[in-house]
Amino acid sequence: MSVAGRRILLIVAGGIAAYKAIELIRLIRKSGGHVTCVLTRGGAQFVTPLTLQAISENRVFKDIFSLSDENEMGHIQLSRAADLVVVAPATADLLAKMAAGLADDLASTVLLATDKRVLVAPAMNVRMWGHAATQANMATLRARGVAVVGPDEGAMACNEWGAGRLAEPAAILAAIAAMLDRPQPLAGRHVLVTSGPTHEPIDPVRYIANRSSGRQGHAIAAALAALGARVTLVSGPVAMADPAGVAVRRVETAAQMLAACQAALPADAAVFAAAVADWRVAGAGERKLKKTADGAPPALALVANPDILATIAAAGPLRPGLVVGFAAETHDMLAHAAAKRVRKNADWIVANDVSPGTGIMGGTENEVHLVTGAGIEPWPRLGKEEVAARLAARIAEALA
Ligand code: C5P
Fold first, then answer.
1. Residues 99-120, mean pLDDT to the nearest whole number
2. Which atom of ligand 1 lies nearest, measured to the CA of 254?
């Protein structure tokens, strides 16, 4: 088990769920891991330092201003000495402090000072969890790469029902093990990903769109983040949740997507998985088009959109070291993909057949060929997450 021999810094914040931290420590110890606890003032209202010390068989730190605590191990050293920092339970208050970068006690100072990965297990009342402030804080933390386990849904100590229960200690242990197991070959790298369709307005209420769901692009962003990359995901309008640990920039039109991509540079690699509209409507204005008395439909004049991939691939010194494009085709897929790679100055093209009947556009699976300068590799039909994981691994190899 990957927890064996690893050092977990466990921050126990206030809340009735703090008692479950004891079981978590027991499970980590049973798996051979070492635990050092930091107890917040609120946490100490629910569990005693003595209990944590007895179960962890280790010194418990709780006061940033205590001479003996700082003497023995300063707050910087405390987080640096760990393989992983875990906050369980993480209260709404501590999550807000993390999001804001406050450091007014030992726990928040350690969290600001750490250079280690952080896993939070939120626990709070259902309304506190659902509050826009907490959700915004969670989005900020996820975008910074903080991993999250739970909260679970169920009956709460306050006699309410809903999301806010601390994840079960076994689930937190599994999340810890998964994080410690995971290689981080893309740590320190920045990767730009585009995803989803673009919407091109016809007038203020109508637009031209396409069937892209964003599934493949979002999965690629998540897979790159899972390998430790800092990921900027520029997404057109999709119904997908933001991937964990990814900074998401939402746009509607191709012009906005290009601007967001340019603003995200420099990047070590860029993956253009968005289905960008090739054309936009010339002169789309502020006024809604009206039906005419004779019933004649309006004639829409289309103008070409910028090619985002080609523009970024020609960005001179700002060109990402590895540029990956997609080619969704319905016929002569490989010939078109190979030509596209050269024409757009991409390094790789992921080619897929999106003919009706393949179920690929908007579906959950994908069957791709990876077209590189070295040749064409057919990949088997896989779930879009697996395609994403394979592509992320190849990008990590290429950037190594
Ligand atoms: O030319 P085509 O649309 O087939 O090229 C597909 C590739 O180019 C995809 O990687 C897509 O994201 C990218 N693209 C783009 N901007 C456009 C059109 C396509 O980035 N305007």
1. 92
2. 21
The answer to whether residues 156 and 164 touch, using CB atoms and an 8 Å cutoff, is yes
197 lines ligand 1 (CB under 6 A): no
In whole angstroms, what is the distance from residue 353 CA to residue 361 CA?
Answer: 9
Q: 133: which 2 tokens?
A: 């402030």
Q: Select the more confidently predicted residue: 310 or 160.
A: 310
For the chain, domains (ranges, CATH) are 7-181 (3.40.50.1950), 190-399 (3.40.50.10300)
The total of other beta-carbon atoms located within 10 Å of residue 381's CB is: 12
258 lines ligand 1 (CB under 6 A): no
- pLDDT (tens digit per residue) in 38-63: 999 999 999 999 999 999 999 999 87
What confidence score (pLDDT) does residue 73 get?
Answer: 61
- Secondary structure, 3-state, 212-246: CCCHHHHHHHHHHHHCCCEEEEEECCCCCCCCCCE
Alpha-carbon distance of 216 to 111, in angstroms, equals 33
CB-hemisphere CA count at 13 Å for 310?
12
Q: How many angstroms separate the CA atoms of 303 and 147, rounded?
A: 43
pLDDT per residue as tens digits for the range 206-246: 999 999 999 999 999 999 998 989 999 999 999 988 887 78
The residues annotated as belonging to the active site are 158
How far is ligand 1, taken at its centre, from the CA of residue 297, in Å?
30
State in Å: Cα 150 to ligand 1 middle: 37
